[in-house]
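Entry 14. Ran structure prediction on the chain below.
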Amino acid sequence: MKKIKTIVICVFIAIIILFIITLFEFILLRLLGLQYESFGSLIIFFLIYLFLTPFFSLITDAIPKALKTIEVIPSSKGWLSFLLDIGVAYISITMIDYFMETIIISWEGTLFFSLISGFIGWKLKETNDEPPMINSYEFQQIEKKIKLKKQD
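Output, structure tokens:
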């Protein structure tokens, strides 16, 4: 019974957080010229956006970390991460806008929202740890753990 209660509380908290994020995004996009035919289409727009962007973000968050690990870029938190966050938001909103005829948003509004979204993501990533360099002691320890698990 305690497990079910804990799960229900966690789901409820997650729904509240998603609602607050959606409300913030709605207000921002409305100021930037979002037009919609019905409230239902607006909810569908945000649900698609909330479920589409995490999949893109998995890829775009991994790219700077991988490039940092192989010493191509000096930091995984720099301009590349910022530009990729902007790109994810812009492409996501543009794709949803293209396929949903009941939602209209200008490219300027999409770009401005993407800049704000990218800036927020960039600031949130400042506290993340940098990945280990490929030649570092920490990386070698990780490799050893992986090899040991493969042998088992």
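Residues 2-132 form one domain. Will compare against last week's run tomorrow.
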